[in-house]
Amino acid sequence: MTTEQHHPRHGLDETIHSPVRLSIVAALAPMSQMEFPLLRDTIEASDSLLSKHMTILESAGYVAVTKGHVGKRPRTWLALTDQGRAAYTAYLDALRHLVEDSGS
Fold first, then answer.
1. Which top-rank group of organisms is this from (predicted)?
2. Which terminus of the chain, N or C, has less C-beta within 10 A?
3. pLDDT tens, 19-70?
4. The whole model's pTM is what?
């Protein structure tokens, strides 16, 4: 029995694969950065749900979180890191490969 894994599903990054995290990464991909409330509204998530999944992506090194102020109001900006962009590209490639191999 071989230990090599050739099925395309093995290329799907579990960190990104969650629907909420995939939505976050997909929304951030075309942007240099996005403010937290805009991302929250874009992916239709609650503050707590977005925070939970952002922490997972940040821990994986896929997202950078920058905090600052605009006037006296605190702001949080989110951006994909180079590692996050590479992981997203690899995820999309694996997903395409999986779909193409299924004959769809």
1. Bacteria
2. N
3. 999 999 999 999 999 999 999 999 999 999 999 999 999 999 999 999 999 8
4. 0.88
Extract the tokens encoding 19: 């629907």
Structure tokens at 60: 């994986």
Overall size of the chain counted in residues? 104
Domain ranges for the chain = 12-91
CATH number for 12-91 (one of 3.90.550.10, 1.10.10.10, 3.40.1390.10, 3.90.480.10): it is: 1.10.10.10
Q: How far apart are CA 81 and CA 87, in angstroms?
A: 10
The residue with tokens 């997203």 is 88
Q: Is the dihedral of CA 52, 43, 45, 93 positive or negative?
A: negative
Assigned token pair, 94? 């694996």
Residue 12 makes CB contacts below 8 A (sequence gap 6+) with 91, 94, 95, 98
